[in-house]
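Quarterly update from the structural biology core.
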Amino acid sequence: MEQGLYAVTKLRSGTTDSVPEIFVEGEYTFLANRPYFIFESNMTLEKEISLKLLRNDEMTMDSLFTHVAYQKPNGTLARLKLYTTELDSLDSEPIPDDTGFVAFYNTDYGYGLASIRLEYDNTNSEGSTSPLYNHHTKISTASNNGRYWNRVLIDSAITVPKGSKYHEKNAYLVFKVGQEIPEEQILYHAERLWNPLTVILQEN
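Predicted structure, tokenized:
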């Protein structure tokens, strides 16, 4: 862990008892006076394994949200109510796995939580694409009538070879819901995170 005036970074890595074939790395970065934190993860297969389910960017919450919003491939916004039949439309037209952001918010109380996707790369150790199956961003039901999102990488029993890698980097933003455009603050921060300021030092 590193801690300074402007950032705190925490690193976690290792394997789990249930799937020791996968080496997992996670890095959390908390920035001073920012309404978001950055999370970056890597999953690397050290041995060949048969997987029924593999996912990342998973956030589980209770029922204190009313809507889900996400960015379509053409850049437009989509909004659905979490507790009506509107959500059924995702069965035929799921949220893309590489959508720019996905967010839950509450229109009654004006708060929200968003995952702004900054990096998404599934290149394996040989430079090819690691196996994916039915990859998309899924909205699921949880206990106590809750809802959660996760990015599905694999959702069927397939053999995944050694050297496969799955990488993500996301900013998790707590935001106030805008009156005219609920996602206004998401778009504000996403534009800056997707196009960060670059400083180049030139020596005289």
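The two ends are 36 Å apart (CA to CA).
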